[in-house]
Amino acid sequence: MPKGIPNKRYTPEFKIKVVETMQNEKLSYMETARQFDIPQGDKTVAKWERIYLEEGKEGFYVERRGRKSTGRPPKLKKEVEEDLIAEVQRLRAENAYLKKLNALVSERVRQEKKHK
After folding, report:
1. Residue 80 sits in which domain range?
2. Whole-Å CA distances, 48 to 25, 27, 53, 61, 91
């Protein structure tokens, strides 16, 4: 396409008609593109056929332009968030307890080795 000329937009109904005509009349991508006057048609018609076969007619009503939104991660429910915070606190306390216990056992073993 030349610069300054926007891409042509096709309605979902037109895309469905193109794909169904191609399948019913057993046309190639190029023949279909020529019949419906679609520039760079073989690639475009092939893409439409893939969408039609994978998602059905409803797939043409999905907006596909632009970048996909990564968005923010979904917020957790308040009770779930509180449960997770409580579990983290419990695990931190348990970890600290085990570290102290390990230090005490190590000290006792060292003391016993020293007295022998």
Report:
1. 76-116
2. 16, 14, 9, 12, 53
- pLDDT tens-place string over residues 77-109: 888 889 999 999 999 999 999 999 999 999 999
Answer whether residue 5 is part of any domain: no
Residue 83 sits at the vertex; the CA angle it makes with 78 and 85, to the nearest 5 degrees, is 95
Please indicate, yes or no, if residue 103 is contained in any of the structural domains: yes
Residue whose token pair is 């005490």: 104
Q: Per the structure block, which two tokens stand in for 68? A: 């996909």
CA distance 14 to 48: 11
What pLDDT score does 113 carry?
85
Q: Does residue 112 belong to any structural domain of this protein?
A: yes
Question: Is pLDDT of 52 > 70?
Answer: yes
Do residue 22 and residue 47 come from a single domain? yes
